[in-house]
Design brief:
Number of helices: 8
Distance between the termini: 44 Å
Helix content: 40-55%
Radius of gyration: 20 Å
Number of strands: 3
Oligomer: single chain
Strand content: 5-15%
Largest sheet: 3 strands, antiparallel
Strand order of the largest sheet: 1-3-2
Structural class: mainly alpha
């Protein structure tokens, strides 16, 4: 059985695994937002193809379009096995590691982000920096466990720092109770 140190070492594969799966699922799910049955419809197009293009151009922001393109690539012929299928296998291994850890502990507490909060829009032009800021937060979504973030302090610049609590599958009660205890013990508030 692996220890919690193994979970910490696995952070290096979590972000790429998460972004392969998340972008593939975004691409697949957002394909139905075509302006015909679902989502916004841009008017004034002369053809169906033009309506699709205008609708998606107007309805999706830059980051959503980026994720759709990455996901479409990961799901395309010749790359599905190399990317999406392998990412799903890694997801299963990580989920098993968390199940093993939760056999020993009731909750796992980690930082929310690797750095204190940054100013709104500060990294908007650097998608890689934004993705790497998610290194700790992608875990709950990737392995399907409940998680919550609570305030635990402020940086020297006065920006918030968060701490997150993960729990066993379907054990939100323990996650909420643990978060409540931590929040009250630290007595940190953000006004």
């Amino acid at each position: 059985m692996r220890d919690l140190g193994h979970l910490a070492a696995a952070h290096g594969i979590r972000v790429p695994t998460y972004y392969i799966i998340a972008t593939a699922e975004a691409s697949s799910n957002l394909a139905r937002f075509d302006g015909v049955r679902y989502g916004l419809r841009e008017r004034g197009a002369k053809t169906l193809a033009e309506m699709y293009r205008k609708t998606r151009d107007a309805g999706f922001g830059t980051e959503v379009k980026r994720r759709i393109m990455l996901g479409t690539y990961a799901l395309s012929a010749g790359y599905y096995d190399a990317y999406y299928l392998k990412a799903q296998k890694v997801r299963g291994l990580l989920a098993r590691d968390f199940d093993e850890a939760f056999a020993k502990v009731d909750a796992i507490v980690t930082p929310t982000t690797p750095t204190p909060a940054f100013k709104l829009g500060e990294k908007a032009d650097d998608p890689l920096a934004m993705y790497l800021a998610d290194i700790f937060t992608v875990t709950a979504n990737l392995v399907g466990v409940p998680g919550i973030t609570v305030p635990c302090g402020k940086s020297r610049e006065g920006l918030p720092i968060g701490l997150q609590v993960f729990g066993k599958h379907f054990d939100e009660v323990t996650v909420l109770k643990t978060a409540h205890v931590v929040e009250h013990a630290l007595n940190v508030t953000f006004d």
